[in-house]
Amino acid sequence: MSDPRQHIMPVYRPPEEVFEKGEGPYLFTESGTRYLDFIAGIAVNALGHSHPAMVDALKGQAEKLWHTSNMFRVRGAEELADKICRDTFADRVFFTNSGTEAVECAIKSARKYHWANGNEERIDIITFTGAFHGRSLGAINAGGNPNYLQGFGPKLPGFVHLEWGDHDALKAAAAQPTTAAVFVEPVQGEGGVRAMPDACLKGLRELCDEHGILLIYDEVQCGMGRTGKLFAHEWVDGAAPDILCSAKGIGGGFPFGACLTTETVGEHMQPGSHGSTYGGNPLAMAVGNVVWDIISDEDFLAEVRRVSATLTQGLKSLADSHPDKVEAVTGKGLLTGLKMKANPKSLQGVCRDKNLLVGVAGNNVLRLAPPLVITDEHVREATNIMDAALSEWVPE
Ligand SMILES: *Cc1c(COP(=O)(O)O)cnc(C)c1O
What we know:
The protein contains 13 helices and 17 strands. By secondary structure, the chain is of the alpha/beta class. The chain folds into 2 domains: 19-51 and 298-392, Aspartate Aminotransferase, domain 1 (Alpha-Beta Complex); 65-295, Type I PLP-dependent aspartate aminotransferase-like (Major domain) (Aspartate Aminotransferase, domain 2). Bound molecules: pyridoxal-5'-phosphate. It is found in: Cytoplasm.
């Protein structure tokens, strides 16, 4: 029999399981086996699977209108942009279909801002090791990961890649007359679930102000309530960005993203300067409004902070009971994980064999990004499975 995957471009290597249905934090295979989902489509299913309010919103919209393109006004997009600007630093929003496109819009907006202000030499975007910003040519050049650049032609000019934590290099680069912006994830996802210390975010804001350059946050993974604040940078006073990229959790499973800017930046993106056929289409916006209403609620966020503390506690005791295998607990809120002493890829498999789905990230990290709606009971279920998996696991 032929392999049913034979015509899929082989850029992923998924396990055998095929999931058919989801409910809250659980996924079910075609044969009905239940798995606890502690990776949530890589921090996407923020409200779990099949959330009734999201299902209703999508069904209701599907029966009315799917798409008109941005040639016409989209009521849902106007409403969601109002909410976003009410609840965040932002004054302007551009809706996209993915995180990568939010990143592209952010880079273009930063360069356009300087160009419009007569500083067209300011094109360089400063990024850091361990960054991940997506897979377009712009995004892989921003991310700077050599594995993702290999084979795809010359590196693009306009990106300066610095060692994470090298303050001297950062100060020197920020002072260059060609610098446009500093671009960071407040909590790195793919690069190893690594939170930037609060003092550093504040320091970045001050450094950018000092040199008249822009601060861009990639909160595609760490935003939308994942750390217990609506956006992760909100843990730090006085560290608001000029531009922010959101996606993943913002659609809760419906693919869309957003690039948020201040008025000073957004005002220069005039008709013709940017666009998207689907961005902010009625289906995405119907779901997006529901997700935003739920996640932006302060009581919801307080509960995320509470359950995060339970999970962190559970992970710390796992680290204590398996000191030979676990090096540290890492991340922030519900974007967290265990930094391991060896590559955790096979540990991920052992967890899956025990019906727990987890991820991995750079730097030997076993990554957890459960739905934000988990309870203490789900945390207990997950940590019990991880405890058994850690005991059984033999690192390669
Ligand atoms: C996933 C991710 C992206 C890319 O988003 P896509 O929706 O896959 O295009 C960009 N930045 C960060 C931090 C991400 O985690």
